[in-house]
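Table S2 (continued). Query chain:
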Amino acid sequence: MHAMILAAGRGERMRPLTDRCPKPLLHAGGRALIEWHLARLAGAGFRRVVVNHAHLGAMIEQALGDGSRWGLSIAYSREPQALETAGGIANAMPLLGDGHFLVVNADIWCDFDFGRARTIAAQMRAASLLAWCVLVDNPPQHPGGDFGIASGRLTAEGSPRYTFSGIGVYAPSLFDGIARGSKAPLAPLLREAIRRRRAGAERHPGRWVDVGTPQRLAELDAQLLSEV
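Corresponding output:
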């Protein structure tokens, strides 16, 4: 099973930090945000990781190399401009293989066990699901949430509502209608999968941070350093 880290965003809310440094390479707790993911993916038994990039992408490749220091093989999906989530995944599809794959946003910090992705993929195959989203409790900056959960299925309505963590497992066929190199958001694909009852979900009760602003980055950095 392969994994993909979404690292192509410009990080506008992080400016001026991201003017000269891509957001995934910003540090918290003594290492780059993306390095936390790579270490956890390696620890969960993943061996191949795809990283897409656009803004200052050469810096990402230079910093991470071929992934061998984590025991990984990193393949890069280069985008001339950010293609949004679904567009970036569709563009990278030739690198992701034929099976279900895990996707995680580079700009989050989370203690979710990536090893669960294999169990999730098996559940998806058994139930013919196209998507499985990991949800978290709503943070202060997003109190309304994104989705609900009912009997293990992702729902567009209902209460309580949760926030999409940026972690998901997907079947390749979810992206069949998206041409490589085109921009496309993920939300419409998830809504259609919900309508067809082909999207699963679970709530992660652990730690999760959307590292979207310099303040949240500084807070995360202080928290992680205090735990060393």
